[in-house]
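Posted in: Protein Modeling Q&A

I'm a second-year student putting together a small comparison for a lab meeting, and my supervisor asked me to include a predicted structure for DUF58 domain-containing protein. I've never done this before, so apologies if this is the wrong subforum. The sequence is pasted below exactly as I got it from our records. If anyone can share the structure token output, I'd also love a short note on what stands out.
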Amino acid sequence: MRKLFRKLKETGKLVNIFLLIVATFVYAMFQGGFVSWFLFYSFIPFGLYSFALTIYPLKDFKLVRHMNQTEYVAGEKFEATIVIKRKAPFPLMYIIIEELLPPQFKKYEQSKQSKVLLFPWFKRELTYKYEFDSISRGEHLLEGIRIKTGDLFGLIEKETIAPVRDQFLVYPQYVDLVYRQLESRFEQGMTSSIVRLQRDTAIAVGVRDYTPGDRFSWIDWKASARRNNIMTKEFEQQQSHDVVLFMDRTKSTHFEQIVTFTASLTKAILRKGAQVAFISIGEDQTVFPLKDGESQQQVIYYHLAKVKDDSPLPFSQIVESEMKKVYQPVTFMLVTSELSDDTIHLVGRFSMRNADLQMFVIKEKGTQLTQDEISVLGAIRKHNVFAKVVYEGHFADIFHEVRKS
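Accepted answer (user: helix_wrangler)
Welcome! Here is the predicted structure, written out as tokens:
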């Protein structure tokens, strides 16, 4: 139906042009004189041009988009260059080129507009560039470019959308943190769990008799030959510091700050050589098991680039459910923006397990805690839990403050 209406509209415009040509001819025939005939002959080129423009196919345009990068970090500058080519040098008085932007792009300031008016005339190739001073986190899709042209009087207008698709990812911002491992806090004071470092690259400090379960690579063959008995390398002891990180995905005005802090904290912990498990549950359920290294950071950052605050369940309920699945001694870290009675109940569950818990409450710069939130924060700290309110712009100071205290 819409196509039929468009066809009727185009046909009506052609009829109007034909009638205008006929009207000027009739006027010249009856009126006579130089002025009337000049008017008729002057209008003929514009009328014929309008007829030719209706025939000229906009599919003759071939558009290519070149971006300065395929992956970005939130807040970086986005630049795109549009190259427009066509085969036939048909004279076009003007064309309007408009990038069809996703909604999340339109709120950001542009230094050069993505909609531009060009005057190609007989040119077969045109180029223009637009920029965004900053772009938001997420997975973005540019689907097409609108082309619009017309004649001098606006009697004929043609428009089409060229399907030029480009998809790119914008990773979350992060702040360089100097991470400091905190000791576990239990009711009897401060302690930390000790486990044997079971890595072939660890430093051997002695030898002992072989026991079932020791790895083949741990056997010290020289010591075994000297003592005529299988001897195993004795490894240095170290504190275990595996971290299980929960991110709150309930609807929040502080969600972008939560993502930024989570990205910063993850990077800092992994840089220290610790293992991190990451749990993020909303409409989708994402659980990354304990792992260290650059690969773990990459998969977590890829998730953080696309994550949304779309959890249908309260954060405390999600954490309570998932913590039951963790059996080894780990440090639990919660990144949230909420302080409520449910939070106190959740902290109580961790205390019953004698679990090492650290909580980071993220707030925007200039936000003041309410009296209820201050009361909840005090109740949490009574459980010997490290709980810290972290304000936007002060992420890098969080562990410096802990060290000073």
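A couple of things worth pointing out for your meeting: The chain has four domains: 2-51, 58-171, 184-193+240-404, 196-238. The two ends are 72 Å apart (CA to CA).
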